[in-house]
Structures are given as structure tokens and as C-alpha cells.
Amino acid sequence: MVGFLIEEGQQLNKWEGHVDWRNRPAMRGDHGGMLAASFVLVVEILENLAFLANASNLVLYLSKFMHYSPSSSANIVTNFMGTAFLLALLGGLLADAFFTTYRLYLTSAAIEFMGLLILTVQAHIPSLKPPTCALASTEIPCQKANGQKAAMLFTGLYLVALGVGGIKGSLPPHGAEQFDETTPQGRKQRSSFFNYYVFCLSCGALIAVTFVVWIEDNKGWQWGFGVATATILTSIPVFLLGSPIYRTKIPAGSPITTMFKVLAAAIYNNFKSKNPKNAVMGMETIPSSYNTETSEEGESSTKVKVPRQTLTEDLKFLNEAIKGKPVSPMLQCTAKQVEEAKVVLRKIPIFMCTIMLNCCLAQLSTFSVQQAATMNTQIGSLKVPPASLPVFPVIFMMILAPTYSHFIIPFARKVTKSEMGITHLQRIGTGLVLSIIAMAVAALVEIKRKKVAVESGLVNSADSLPITFLWIALQYLFLGSADLFTLAGMMEFFFTEAPTSMRSLATSLSWASLAMGYYFSSVLISVVNNITSTFRHTPWLSGSNLNHYHLERFYWLMCILSSLNFFHYLFWANRYKYKTASSAD
């Protein structure tokens, strides 16, 4: 009897569906909690430092040392960033289906390390780069990287992108998994974790756009890449220090397979029900999958019953997936699987509405840096590298994140008398509004910059314009605030609203939105250039001289598109129904 009670107590103390780093059952009190999540936060500082150390300044490296044009450099950077964030979907899928988030992070960090090592070697050895370009010399024309040099550059870049994708797909859900979502305290701690994840992401970015960018501009790019390489290498032992107290979700197979199974069954049954020959047969069939959510052992001597999950009325066509006898055992679905598919489909419109905001954010690492490079970057006796401009939104985000967690949210909880205080969708909507303001400010600042260039007679000169680069900081401030509200809101929204079996993949949608934004930025620039070149001799965004660009018109276009996107978002956000506690896994 005593042995039975001890065994029963051990079962109660286990984290169901979780294991430790040695694949033993994770135990309450020993695994998980804020301490375990703290290691993830420290690792995020190092990981984001390694990634942004070069991404924030990469557009200048490509134009000055690899001799690509400003628009080509901007497209290379946006494609690189977009690929890195899009690969987070692959990372999330692998973490949910095959690997644990623990193992996937270690593998991805090693891949990113190899990519940065390749870039460091190329930056260090002159023969692996194009010859130095002397603008005033006709003997040494500017020659962009091609052949083996370009192959080495892009191999390094996309190994980094692959590693970053795996990290972004595994690290945030690994930290969020450390909390007990069955208690209000655990859910509040998890919400704070996402805010502090963005805070730590900003800490890494702050070091990257100040210290590392200064090294790149003053000591050489080989040193900048070297710092990033050493940083990502350091993150691995730091992450391993938390191994004894991590709890890790057991992979449950591919969630994508379940999604497609539900969709296929629903489509087949809908088609069959419309066929007169099958109408009577369909009415006479007993929907057994709908009536029972129990295992096959339900009628055995144990008589264990699993609570049946009822079907909701939204997306009713998916309910057909469990009506009637399936044409194949592979298409047999349960009510729980149907409801999980609905949860995913309901989030897709919200996901699509965030892409435009991230298209605006893409300008932070492309045209905004190039604008600042044409302006006076002196602050007193200090000369600030243009790539260090993101320091303004980063510092603001570092101030706003803890303020939001410790003051705004507690106040909102008291006012609304709700656990969340401010809903995830309200946070995302606030970010969308801030992005609209940011694009309007960016257009006005560009008008002022070009006016100064004309008045000072420096339109065709490479000299710095007599206008401070701090004007550009205004758009960085609004876009940085938008990023804080939207990124943290998206990550928590996708994680908490997703079925347990696909939370890593769902959280990766936040990064996929960033990827789509970067890709859309590249496509938008190409479309704008193609259309404007039809009506004018030169397109809006082409050439090597930024003063000849019509960047202000491009920013106004972004402002209009962002406004239309916000109204589109309101339509879907007002119709979204949050997953209730009773339907949680």
C-alpha cells in the first residue's frame, strides 16, 4: 500500500508529456520554472548579438567591399534576413515532430558558427574579396564579387540563415515550455517571459549596433565577423549550463500531417455529401469518431473515459471530416484534431496582416542606413557609424519592455479585471498603428534631407549633407516601438493559442511574418521600379546615388498600404475568438 502511494505521488509530480535532457521524466519542482527560462534569455542576448552584429551593417559591407549597388545590396540583405526568418518554420516543425527544442538549438548554433567562420575567413584574406575599388581611378574599375568569391559569400550567409532559422524556431518555445500553464501564476510568468525575451533580444542588438559596428568600421570586418563567431560559440556552453533543470516537450509527430488529414477528409466528405448517390449512405452512417474520443481500451476492464471534445460552429465545413465512414483509415479523424485544425486556420488571417508591418521594419536595415550614411553623423566630437542608428529604438525597447511588464500590464489587469489585461490582438494592433506613423515620418524626413541636398548643392556629391542623422532616428523610434508591441504579442498569441503538439511551429509564424515582410519589401522595390520606369526615364529606386532616388514617394506608398492593412486587420481581429481554458490541451 505504501509503495502504491509513493508511486502515485511520483506520477503526480511528473510533467506530463515532458522529459529532461537525458530523456527521463521531468519532475515538478526539479525541472522548469523561471530559473530554467533565465538561461534561455541569456542565450538569446548572445545569439541575437551574433546575428545582428553583421546583419545591421551588412548592406554597407556589400556595397563598399563586395561592390554591389545600393539597391542590389538592399535586396541581398532583405533576402538573407527573409530566408533566415522563414527557415524558423522548418526549425519549429522539426522541434515539434522529430527533435526536441533542446537538441535543435545545439545543432542550429553549430551550423550558424560554421557560416560565420566562412565569412570571417573571407573578410580576413584579401584574395577572397574583389580588388579595392578606387572611384577616381580608371585603372582599377569597380568589380563586384562574382564566381568563387560570390559563392563563398553566399555559402557563409545562408549557412548563417539556416542556423538562425533553427534557433528562432526552437529557442523561444523552449523557454516558454518551462512554465506551468495550468496555473494563473505560470501563465503570468510565461507572458513576462515573452516580454523579457524581446528585452534580451534588444540587449544583444544594442551591443551589436554599437560595439561590434564600431569594430567593423574602425578595425575591419574580419574582427566584426570574428566577434560574432566567438559569441555564437560561447552561447552553446551557456545553454548547456541549464541542462539539469530544463524540461522539454516530447515530439509528437508532424502536426502538418494531421492538418492535411483533416482538410482531405473534410473535402472528401463535403464532395460525397453533395453527390446524390452518396446522400442516403452518408445520412445512415454513424459518425463514430465524433461520438468517442476514448482510446480503444475504453471498453476494457479499466473503463477509463476521456472527455469528449465538442465541435464548434465556426469553419463548419471542417466538421464534415468526422462524419461518415472514412474512405481510408488514414483519413479517420477525431473531434480534437478537427478543432486543432480550426485553431490554426483562424490564426492565418492575423498572421497575414502582420506581414506589411515587417515590410516596414525591413527598411531599418536597408534604405534607412543608406540615408544616414549621406548625413552628418557627428554628435559633438563623436562620429557615429550609420549602422548604429538602431541604437535609438533598441534603447527605447529596453526601457519599454520592463515598463510594460511591471507597470502597464498590472494596471491594465486591475482596470479590465482580466488575467491578460491587454489582449494579444490589441498589442499587435498597436504595433500596426505605430508602423503607419513611422512611414509617414520617414517620408517627411526624406523630403527634408533631399531639400538640404539641393540647397547646399551636394546632390551629386559624396560629401556628407549639413543635416544631422538624428532626423532618421525618429522613424527608428516609431518602428522600434511597433516591433516591441507586435513581436512579443505575436509570439505569445501564436504559442498560447496553438495546440500543444505544434507550439514550436506556431511560434515560428512570428519569424515567418518577418521573413515575408523582407521578401515583400524586395518584391515591392522591384515592382515599383518596373512600373515607374515605364512612365519615367529612370525608376524611383535605382542608381548609385541615393539623392536621385524618390524614396519619399516609396515611403508614402508604404504608409498607404500599411493603413489599408490595418483596416484589414481590424476585420479579422474583431471576429477572432480566443481559445478558452476548457478547450486547452
Automatic annotation (TrEMBL):
Pfam families: PTR2. It is found in: Membrane. InterPro entries: MFS_trans_sf, POT_fam. SUPFAM superfamilies: MFS general substrate transporter (SSF103473). The chain crosses the membrane at residues 34-62, 74-95, 101-121, 194-215, 221-241, 348-367, 387-407, 428-447, 467-488, 509-533, 553-572. The keyword Membrane applies. Belongs to the major facilitator superfamily. Proton-dependent oligopeptide transporter (POT/PTR) (TC 2.A.17) family. This is Protein NRT1/ PTR FAMILY 4.6-like. It comes from Durio zibethinus (Durian).
